[in-house]
Amino acid sequence: MDMSIAALSVSMHQNQAMQDMGVAILKKAMDTTEVATEEMLAELAADPNLGAMVDIQA
Length: 58
Hints:
The protein is mainly α. The chain contains 1 helix and no strands. It comes from Selenomonas ruminantium subsp. lactilytica (strain NBRC 103574 / TAM6421).
């Protein structure tokens, strides 16, 4: 393992850039999921009478 300081620095920066990109992608996925969940909950709450009465027959 004979690496120069410059090569080690470049390698470390490349790893950090890849990690930063992965975190950014995960944040975007979380934001997209949050928006989709909020839209779904808004659609479910559109009719306040939905589910107010349940008919049960034995």
